[in-house]
Structure formats: C-alpha cells, structure tokens
Amino acid sequence: MQIISELAASVAHEVRNPLQVTRGFLQLLNVNTTEKTKKYLSLALDELDRASDIITDFLTFAKPQLDHVAKLHLATEMKHIEGVLLPLTNLQGGEIVSNIPNDLYIKGNSAKFKQALINIIKNSIESLRGKGQIRISALKERNDVVIVIRDNGEGMDEATVAKLGQPYFSTKTKGTGLGLMVTFRIIEVMNGSIHFSSELGVGTEVIIRIPFVQDERIDV
C-alpha cells in the first residue's frame, strides 16, 4: 500500500500539470471565438475537469490517511452536506428529509467525511424518479453512531449491490466506480463499516457505522 500510495501521488502530480496547462490555454481561446467553437471548448473543459476529478478519487483511494483529524459534530457536518447537494436535489425534483440528533460526535477529517457522504447521497439523488425522497437519520447504538440513508429511487438487484465498491464497476454511463471505492476506504480508515441493501423499483438503504466519540480530547 505504501508503494501504491507513492506511485499514485507521483502519477497524480505528473498528470495534473499538463491538464492545468491545457485548461488554461482552452480558457484563453474561449475568450475570443465563435459561439459554435465556444460550445466545443466548453465540452473540452468539462472533460478535463472530469479527468481531474478521477485523478483526485484515485489518489484518495490509494492514500486515504486522515490528516487534521478532529471531533466532528454530526448534525453540523450533515447540514453542510445537505447545503451542497440541495441544488442537485431540486434539479431532480426530489427532497431530502433529515433527522440528526444534536448530541452525536465522531472522529475524522471533515473534508474526507463530507466527500464520502456526498458520494452516497448523490447516488441516491440521481436514482430518484420524479418527486422522490431521501431520508437521512442517525442514532447512537452501543458504541457506534449509525447513519441511515434511504431513498425511494430506482433501486438495484442483488448482483449489482454485491459489486458496489469494486474497481471500475459503475451503474453510470460515464462512471469509473472510484467514487464508491473512495467512500468505502474513507469509512474504513475511520474504523467504520458500510452496508448497502436495495430492491429494484423500491429503493436503496445505506447503513454506516462509525465509532461514537465521548471524550473531548482526540489523540491522533
């Protein structure tokens, strides 16, 4: 894993440099050009950004160590996540209903935790049909914080659920599968677990368990 991490960091750095240079020149060309050409340049910029996102996911998967670990207030974290995803939810015609108690705390890196949850909830949003709903709840169960995300979207069959988190498996046309791989890795590094259950035409449920934090002090 150490070798993979070092290789991932090296590849990400070497590939990002030409991507950034290319993106800069495309932006310059986009200033003084025809509307038809702008359309093509816009598509090229979108694909460059997608390539950059894939590199970021690859790097996070290979090196998911959580720097800047802190005590996270779950209700606050979830409020930020909902704010980020609200435009996409509205676009899909759905809604997010959440019930997060105010006394739940976990240990982790805020940015990485948000990334993991956004990956999951975004998949739920994209699976909604018309005015669908995503329900997010949390509770303390023994020594764990249990986060439950349910949607009434398209759902998946057992074979598809079994493949979630595998390299390069995705239900999306342009998907790489790295998003859920990253999510699994982040939750794993947080000493947690994640479980998917789904039924076609009914929806999907995701249950995440992460150790509950009581002590104000966190030893990193």
Give your account of this protein's structure.
There is one protein chain. Strand 4 (133-141) and strand 5 (144-151) form a beta hairpin. The radius of gyration is 19 Å and the shape is globular. Helix 2 runs parallel beside helix 6, helix 3 packs parallel to helix 4 and helix 4 packs across helix 6 (178-189). Helix content is 51%, strand content 21%. The mean pLDDT is 82. The protein folds into 2 domains: 2-62, Helix Hairpins; 70-211, 2-Layer Sandwich (Heat Shock Protein 90), CATH 3.30.565. The chain has 220 residues and is α+β, with helices and mostly antiparallel strands. It has a 5-stranded mixed sheet with strand order 2-4-5-7-6, covered by helices on one side. The chain has 6 helices and 7 strands. Keywords: ATP-binding, Kinase, Nucleotide-binding, Phosphoprotein, Transferase, Two-component regulatory system. InterPro entries: HATPase_C_sf (IPR036890), HATPase_dom (IPR003594), His_kinase_dom (IPR005467), HisK_dim/P_dom (IPR003661), HisK_dim/P_sf (IPR036097), Sig_transdc_His_kin-like_C (IPR004358). This is histidine kinase. Pfam families: HATPase_c, HisKA. It catalyses: ATP + protein L-histidine = ADP + protein N-phospho-L-histidine.
